[in-house]
Each structure stands twice: as C-alpha cells, then as structure tokens.
Specification:
The complex is a heterodimer of chains A (195) and B (128). The radius of gyration of chain A is 26 Å and the shape is elongated. Chain A is built from four helices and six strands. Chain A is of the alpha/beta class and 195 residues long. Chain A starts with a helix and ends with a strand. The longest helix of chain A is centred in the first third of the chain and has 20 residues. With 128 residues, chain B is an alpha+beta fold. Chain B contains two helices and nine strands. In chain B, the strands form two sheets. In chain B, strands 1, 5, 6, 7 and 9 form a five-stranded mixed β-sheet that branches. In chain B, strands 2, 3, 4 and 8 form a four-stranded antiparallel β-sheet that branches. The longest helix of chain B is centred in the first third of the chain and has 18 residues. The termini of chain B are far apart. The chains are: A alpha/beta (195), B alpha+beta (128). At the A-B interface, helix 2 of A face loops of B.
C-alpha cells in the first residue's frame, strides 16, 4: 500500500514538473507573414486588402483626375469587431506616400474635430497674434471621396467541423460634386477552418 | 558610323527585352514543389508610368497547391522602393497555370523581384 502511494506521488510530481516546463514563450514575428491562427479578419488582412486596393487605384491613374481627395471611414458590415480605421489609414497612407499620386489628401470627417478645435483656438481665444494664425474659411474641400465597405459571409458544414468565411472589401472613388463614381473595385479573401 | 550606332542600340534593345523574360527575378523561399515558372512569362511593362510585373506559374503535380508570393521593387540604382509587402495567396489547381501580378506604386521602380513559396510554414508567423 505504501509502495503504491509512493508511486502515485512520484508520478504526480513528475507531471507537475512537466507542466512547469511548458512556460509561455514570447517572440517578435514578421508582421508581413501570413496569419492562420483565426478565421477572423486580422490586421494582416486589413493591411493587405487596403494596400492592394490603393495600389490598383494608383495604377488606374484615376485618382489624379481629382485635385483633392479624402477617405471616408471604412464601414464594417461583418458580424465581427474590425478596427476599420486601420484600413482607412492604410488606404490614405499608400495614396499619400506614392509619388505617382499628384492629388492632395484633405481632412476626412474623422479628422475634422481636431482641425476645428485648432482653428477656433487660434482665431477665437484671443491669445494669438492674428497676423500669425491660420485663417478660418481657407480650407480646401475634397473634389473626390473614397468610400470603403467590408462585408463577410460564413458557411458552416452540416457536421460543424468545417467553416468557410469569405470577406469582400469594396472601394469606390466618387466625384463629390457630381456624385459620380470615377473608379470602383473589390478584393475577396476566404479563410477556412477544419477539424 | 551611323550603322554601327544603330547596331549597338539594337543589341541593347534585344538585351533589354531578354531581361524582361528571364526568371532571375524570381526567388523561391524553400522548395518550389510541383510548381514551375512557365518559360518566358516573367515580364514587366509600364502602365500609367508605373511598373507592372507578372509571371505565370504552373502546377505539374496531381493535387491543388496553395502558394504564397510577394514582389519587391527596385529603382535604377538597385535600391528597394516602397515598403515590404504582405504575402499573398495564390491557388494553382493540378495541371493548371496561374498568373501572379504585382504593381509598383512609385514611378521610380524600374525592376522587380518576385518571391514565391509553396510551403505555408515558411511565410507564416505562428502556428498551433
């Protein structure tokens, strides 16, 4: 009996020691590598789709038909939480940093709050030398607007062991005054999970 | 003299064209498996003053292959232009060909390198 108890204790101790060895490991990884840990729309997917759409728009040359443009916040029509500001910013970054784009980026609705605050501070607080302040009513309006929308569709197999999630990112460039689409395109991504 | 200059210019033009269709611009990350580059299909041309590159890949195997690719662009001095791209998926069905295309977003890009991997683990950050 004593021997049996000793054996149980020893195996328990050995198991605990083994569990103790499995310590979590943290490491830096390539942010451009693929991410297959989830079927959710990840940061990689956000950046990849936004960058590809921006690249297609630049290559079409249509953006240069607008003197100024802005990017409206990308709409999330999926059933997940997706920080679409990453897509909005990635689109604006790629377009603004390309030397092939002669059109100028102007403030979006999201960035307007800070701009109005700054203009009000400079012009209405009475604290500034008025010859050095940025004047009201001088901002440039956007001739064109970029609209984006992300949608998803999930299919689950009858046995529940396989899931397919398809995402579509639509992008359109509109002439603001005429309400006319200048360019439009979409990019699809499908992710599968099987047990 | 004029004739000689013309001959030299023609020779350079021919070399230029030949460079556009070699596969020295393709580097495989790991093994290419059953995927091969179709001869003479690694090409580039300028569209709206921006370099567009493409290659045709063929799967000679008996099963569908999921490959991963990305492009890097270089300027006339051989310096890389733009930021690092995210790996893109390309599915090549058995005995089928698939075109992979990349586009530069800066007019300075004059040349490109296409990176390709058939092994997902080579281009995946973490697996479980």
């Amino acid at each position: 009996m004593k021997l049996k108890s000793l054996a149980i204790r020893s195996s328990l101790l050995a198991s605990l020691a083994l569990i103790g060895c499995a310590t979590p490991k943290v490491s830096y990884v390539d942010p451009n590598a693929t991410n297959t840990l989830t079927t959710n729309f990840t940061q990689n997917d956000l950046r990849a789709t936004a960058q590809e759409m921006a690249q297609q728009l630049i290559q079409s040359g249509k953006i240069n038909k607008c003197k100024t443009y802005t990017v409206s916040p990308v709409k999330n029509a999926t059933d997940q939480y997706v920080d679409t500001s990453v897509m909005t910013n990635a689109l604006a970054d790629k377009l603004s940093n390309s030397s092939a784009v002669t059109s100028n980026y102007v403030l979006s609705t999201d960035e307007m709050g800070n701009q109005v605050d700054e203009l009000s501070r400079q012009n209405q607080s009475g604290l500034y030398d008025q010859s050095s302040t940025a004047k009201m009513g001088k901002m440039k309006g956007a001739q064109c607007r970029i609209d984006g929308k992300l949608t998803s569709d999930t299919s689950v197999a009858p046995d529940g062991k396989t899931t397919l999630v398809s995402y579509t990112f639509f992008v359109q460039l509109f002439d603001v005054q005429q309400g006319m689409a200048v360019w439009r395109n979409s990019k699809n991504i499908s992710k599968g999970l099987s047990y | 003299m004029k004739k000689m200059l013309l001959t030299v210019a023609t020779t350079f033009a021919v070399i230029g064209c030949a460079n556009n269709s070699t596969n020295s611009r393709v580097s495989n990350i790991g093994s290419m498996g059953d995927v091969e580059i179709v001869k003479g299909t690694v090409k580039s041309q300028r569209l709206n003053n921006l370099l567009v590159s493409q290659a045709v890949l063929k799967n000679t195997g008996n099963s569908t292959v999921n490959g991963y690719y990305r492009c890097k662009f270089l300027d006339a001095n051989g310096m890389y232009v733009g930021s690092e791209q995210i790996w893109q998926l390309v599915t090549i069905y058995q005995n089928a060909e698939q075109v992979v295309k990349c586009g530069a977003t800066d007019p300075e890009a004059t040349d490109f390198r296409l990176e390709f991997s058939v092994d997902q683990t080579n281009v995946t950050a973490l697996t479980y």
